[in-house]
Write a structure and sequence with these properties.
single chain; mainly alpha; 20 helices
Length: 503
Amino acid sequence: MTLTTPPETALAGRREWTALGVLMLPLLLVSMDVSVLYFAIPSISADLRPGATEQLWILDMYGFVLAGLLITMGALGDRIGRRRLLLFGAGLFGAASLAAAYAHSPGTLIAARALLGVAGACLMPSTLALIRTLFRDEAQRAKAVTTWTAVMAGGISLGPVVSGALVEHFWWGSVFLLNLPAMLLLLLLGPVLLPGSRGPGAPGRFDWPSALLSLAALLPLIHGIKELAKEGAGPLPLLTITAGLLVSVVFLRRQARLAEPMVDLVLLRTRAFGGSVLANLLAMLATVGFAVFVTQYLQSVLGRSPFEAALLSLVPSAGVMVAAPLGAALARRFDRAYVMAGGFLLSAGGFASLTLLGPATPLWALLTAATVYASGLVSAMTLANESALGAAPPERAGAAAAVLESGTELGGSLGMALLGSIGAAVYTDAMPASAPAAARETLGGALTTPGPVLDAARAAFTDALNWAAGGAALVMLCATALCVCVLRRRRRTQAPASYATSA
């Protein structure tokens, strides 16, 4: 059945909030699948014996395909209906999870991970776009988006913990079978609770050349940035990034000429939407770019096991659970731009405190600083998501959500490249010239060399973390300035006047 689209000011009731709970199931699992293989990969390697390249693709294929198809699937959902696309994605996600769980070769597992990426691209923008349809009241929509952001962030954090617990008691395929009950529940309840969300103002035909161009732009761009983070400024990553940027120009020029574009450049140029997308990108740059330093510090400097490190990484979630609703409540009383700026400023303070971290610093100090910066970041990201979603007309909510999430993926890749490069340069410079080559390249290469070399490597990595934290703090200050200069006096996000807001 299809629900009648309510007026923009209508309050959501029990049905809509129940529907939100149903939407959180795929979101949680899609976000978990980004990190769920972290502890399962040793078991997969022992069982399937993939080569080095195959192992890399097993880990990266899901996020790679997901990022490349977000814009395409968001625009497609606006045209065929987000509920229809969501249910198709749920069915595909379940089937691909089953195939991944029982894969008997590296190639089969890589192919299954690619299908999971396609399904994830169907699910993620649809969940956020359906929130725009279900919750027309601004205050209620803010609470719903707060829940969406918290579940997405929580899923990424829970992935390693869940995979570690499952692999400890079952075989590695169990991390994929976890998806099946949730997807089955979505397929059963979705048609009853979720609106069709394709109103009379929905965009026209789907432009396949634009879909191919967006894929040809995003895939090499994100892949090149990731390779830049891993291999440094070599000719191949730079060539790949350049190719992605050139195709992006072609894609944007085509969007400017189309009557029914896949990415609405008019919307992208508005402060409420474009500024929020950029703020979200900067937030993910700092979050993802710095996360690897915390994980390595816990394991390789403090000597915690991977599973202990994963559990400790959940500690900041306690602060996030308080800060995100508090930020949403403050945004109803004050200009949301200043509340977002306050969140980014708080996170800058958390990162800045980590510039003083040393090998002998107590664990509680690290966790406290991580809680501070995570709380500020998620509060600001929640408001950025809600502001961008509220700025989009309901009939284009899928495309708007996809652009927002594509910026998130791009920000994460940029964070690994920029902060990772800063850390690598500081680490190499701090290591003594007499250390073995492997130890001078990475901390992992020094773990097999105990004694003074390992002590020097741990001190050098701590220096690298300090500098990366400083870089993240600087990014947060830039995000603070962006909010104050671009988004202020934009408390109530509205679509441009040229849009018809009927759904």
